[in-house]
Amino acid sequence: MIFLLQKIKLKYIRRKKMNLERKYTEAEAEAINMSREMAGLPPIAQNNENTAVQNKEIKNETATIEAIATEETAEEIKERRNENERNRLKQQGGLRPNQLFHHTLINWDGKPQDVICKYPTTKQAIKYSKMEVDPVTGKGVFLFADVVNDFQNDKLLPKFEIEDFPASEIAELATFLSEVVRNPFLK
After folding, report:
1. Which of 41, 63, 91, 98 sits 20 to 30 Å CA-CA off 147?
2. How confident is the model at residue 79 (pLDDT cuts 50, 70, 90)?
3. Is the separation of the CB atoms in 127 and 187 below 8 Å?
């Protein structure tokens, strides 16, 4: 079946290539160029129409530069994705044991990357919500690294590599995980 589909696709590509190589009437060429322009492609070139192609390529390059300038930063993408996930979880009434959710972090390459998390069972959640008391100050101390390590040890962070992210992102993940453990309804 796959072989047959590939054969049909090859015939279609050959036929399309042959159509592009033939000379069009002026009306056909104009109609084709209008539809190509609407699709953001350069017009077809016949005889001495190379200048039209070059002008269109310059316009496309300018549009690409503008798109890059107005594009969201990795931090904005991360914030938007995390807010959308938080809203999704609130709308469905919070988290339940063994439910999957995600949190977006920025990896070492500066790109946003989703971390898939599995909500712990109640027994596991009790373990994660423990805090130690600092003997000097008497205040509660929360160890972020322990939360991420405990989630990893309990296989609640599938396909997660701690080395793919800076320490600041790991601390943010630990903060988020401790928040959802203490407040699964995200109120």
Report:
1. 91
2. very high
3. no
